[in-house]
Structure formats: C-alpha cells, structure tokens
Amino acid sequence: MTDMSTRQTDILSLIPQRPPMVMVDAFGGIASDGKSWTELTVREDNLFFIDGRLQAPGITEHIAQSAAARAGYLCVQDGRPVPEGFIASIEKMQFSLNLPKAGDRLQTSVEVLADIFNMSLVHAVCSNGHETVAEGNLKIYLNDETLQA
Q1: Of 4, 5, 69, 135, which one is least surrounded by beta carbons within 10 A?
Q2: HSE-CB for 133 with a 13 A CA cutoff
Q3: How far apart, in Å, are the Cα atoms of 39 and each of 88, 112, 148?
Q4: How far is Cα 92 from Cα 74, in angstroms, rounded to an integer?
Q5: For residue range 71-124, what is the model confidence (pLDDT) as tens digits?
Q6: Are strands 131-143 and 36-41 parallel, antiparallel or unpaired?
Q7: In degrees to the nearest 10, what's the CA dihedral of 43, 107, 4, 13?
Q8: Residue 19 near residue 4, CB atoms below 8 Å
Q9: CB atoms within 10 A of CB 46
C-alpha cells in the first residue's frame, strides 16, 4: 500500500461527488503494479450507516468512488477536467457478513482490468484491517469526451 497523503480537502478535487455523498476520504496514488488505493473512515452520519453498520450499498458506492478518485487523479495529472462516472454493472461482488462499524477504517485497492473508450472494468478489494469486507468487479462509464474515438 502507498502513503495515504491526499486527505479530505484534496479528495474533492479528484471526484465529482460532494457532501453528503463523499465516500472516500483519502487517496494514496497509483502503485507501480497499477493498483490505486483509497481509505474511508466509517462514520455514524454516513447516509448508508444503518443499524450500527455501513451497509453493502455504501461499500459499493465507496468502491465506485475509489475508482472515480483513480480516474480523477489521472485526469488532473493530464490537465483534463474530472469526469462524472456511473456504475454500469456490478459483477461477482461478495460482501463479508461482518459489515464495518463506526470508526472502522476501510482500505480499498482498485485495479483496472480493461479500458474500452469510456468504459472501464475494475476489480476492487475493500478491507477492514486484515479482513476483506467486499471484493468484486464494477463496470464504470466515464462521461469524458476526451476518451471518445
């Protein structure tokens, strides 16, 4: 994992979401193996925090925003605007029965498996300490005119 040096104030420059829908609070960059890293501290005021736990839809949104932060980081590096993105599909997603509690710190890796025009297939692993909370694939559509043929 890389150093998680980009904090809340900077994360907003990498993703199109705004509070209360911000589900990533740190971006760790892109490692030499191509994986990017994000973190989220689970809070009770999170929209997806129900019955003392961050629910699966919240973890899915965190993963999608982790992919968005990766795309936003690359766009900023290239001097392009940060695009909006949309979840096109969720595939082979598995969740732990032990959903995160308030104060837990999620660490998520995102690896791009394929890019075709504005569509990316990503594999993500979301962990809480040494336990995998969720793992699976998302297809993400980026509304980025600079990527179109």
Answers
A1: 5
A2: 27
A3: 23, 18, 30
A4: 26
A5: 999 999 999 999 999 999 999 999 999 999 999 999 999 999 999 988 999 999
A6: unpaired
A7: -70
A8: no
A9: 21
